Amino acid sequence: MSKETNQQWGGRFTEPTDAFVARFTASIDFDQRMYRQDIQGSIAHAKMLTEAGVLTADECASIEAGLAEIQSDIENGNFPWSIELEDIHMNIEAALTKKIGLTGKKLHTGRSRNDQVATDIRLYLRDEIDNILSEITRLQQGLLTLAQAEADTIMPGFTHLQTAQPVTFGHHLLAWFEMLSRDYERYVDTRKRVNVSPLGAAALAGTTYPINRQITSDLLGFDRPAENSLDAVSDRDFAIEFCASSSILAMHLTRMSEELVLWASAQFNFVNLPDRFCTGSSIMPQKKNPDVPELVRGKSGRVYGHLMSLLTLMKSQPLAYNKDNQEDKEPLFDTIDTIKGCLRAYADMVPALESKKTEMREAALRGFSTATDLADYLTRNGMPFRDAHEVVGKSVAYGIEQNKDLAEMSLEELQVFSADIRADVFEVLTLEGSVAARDHIGGTAPNQVRAAVARGQKMIDAR
Ligand code: ARG
Questions:
Q1: Distance 324 CA to ligand 1 centre (A)
Q2: CA of 326 to the centre of ligand 1 (A)
Q3: How far apart, in whole angstroms, are the C-alpha atoms of residue 384 and residue 392?
Q4: β-strand partners of 225
Q5: Are 202 and 196 in contact (CB under 8 A)?
Q6: 101-119 confidence digits (pLDDT tens)
Q7: Among residues 72, 134, 265, 281, which one is catalytic?
Q8: pLDDT at 286
Q9: pTM surpassing 0.85?
């Protein structure tokens, strides 16, 4: 390192930064991924300064051309990233000055890295939210298509992971669809608070130049300039909110994963995960492991962790900008990467899921899944529900003893428990009768599943 002090802010310093401190305080290793947003923000700022009469049109044109060159240098791998220049903002500014000379030094007029970095993160996150939204839609489309194909497939529904009542597989998939619809809305809502322009807040108090914050806000596609300069440079709750929305989505993905892992096991044997989404064991030749759902389940850990990191990072921070905030980027970026990876894996995998209809059906036949239907049958014939519950409980106990499901008992056997049971009882004891009877909005009947698919399709088509 040279004996000179830092070329961007070294005026008042008498010795160069300690070599370790330079590395310790630098963010260039992780903030360089915001290079496009940094350049975009600088161009908007330069244009606005030109309209305000602070820069000449020639100066602005030269800044724009220089920044465009820098962007292609970065994209072609020809950019000399420097730790001494600390972060993406100073790396680009120094490169600009090197390219276009003195005019490059005018770019930072009326601006600070504090409003610059807040602008960059918001632009970056806004784009990534849009990418996440389209991946959620792709996954939801896969679920809708599969739910339509599986509208008549019967499986056991569970509570407490004990067989409860028969449901259709399509209905189960649509429960996942609903979780994702709420996740989608949460990101759309988060995006509103991300899409606000901090530019012009400068270091913390605003600037003495005749800037026009509306111009930069419009040029960058923000909804409006942030109201308060102190808040604009220090607010990171938009990032916390993004991590919270992501944590809830990650939690939903763990629930789906858990079910897929269970269903793919020899014990459940409800689905086949295509080989390309699984791996084998190096020692047990019979193994086909559901790695993708397992890994997605495990990745929730880091997403929740990043939410905790950001909450803790912001806790007790006095206004306005503090260097603590440099620590916002790695958790935020890793959350983005993790969520995109999980969604991509799921959106690719879901359309390839194969249900094992015979096995699902057999499982639903075991476990007295139509016991509630028998109780409802007795109630329709005049018996109070509590008494009907008791009667069916006794017939189930008999069935366990005899190793027979309700539908496998003879009419005579059933009538031992209630004389009100007639031959028509077998219609309600079938799996098809049971699911078809739950025929109302949100119910598991196959025609309700098809109607819900149609509504879901209309909803995602309107996005
Ligand atoms: N690299 C810094 C960050 O990520 C940029 C802002 C630095 N501002 C400052 N005054 N040190 O937050």
A1: 9
A2: 6
A3: 12
A4: 197
A5: no
A6: 999 999 999 999 999 999 9
A7: 281
A8: 84
A9: yes
Task: Answer whether 111 contacts ligand 1 (Cβ < 6 A).
Answer: no
Predicted pLDDT at 1: 43
* Cα 29 to middle of ligand 1, angstroms: 14
Catalytic residue among 160, 316, 410, 440: 160
Tell me whether residue 235 is exposed, middle or buried, using C-beta atoms within 10 angstroms of its C-beta: 0 to 12, 13 to 18, 19 or more: buried
389 given a catalytic annotation:
no
Q: Is 113 touching ligand 1 by the criterion CB < 6 Å? A: yes
CB contact set of 159 (below 8 Å; sequence gap of 6+):
none
Closest CA to 149 of 326, 350, 12: 350
Q: Give the integer Cα–Cα distance in Å for 340 and 136.
A: 9
φ/ψ of residue 395, rounded to 5 = -70, -35
Among 323, 325, 327, 330, say which to mutate for ligand 1: greatest number of ligand atoms within 8 Å of CB: 323
Sequence letter at residue 62:
S
Specify which residues 224 forms β-bridges with.
196
How do residues 172-197 score in pLDDT, each as one tens digit?
999 999 999 999 999 999 999 999 99
Question: How far apart, in whole angstroms, are the C-alpha atoms of residue 49 and residue 383?
Answer: 82
- The amino acid at residue 31 is D
Distance 114 CA to ligand 1 centre (A): 6
Tokens 């044109």 appear where?
A: 61
Query: Is ligand 1 within 6 A of the CB of residue 91?
Result: no
Active site residue 160: yes
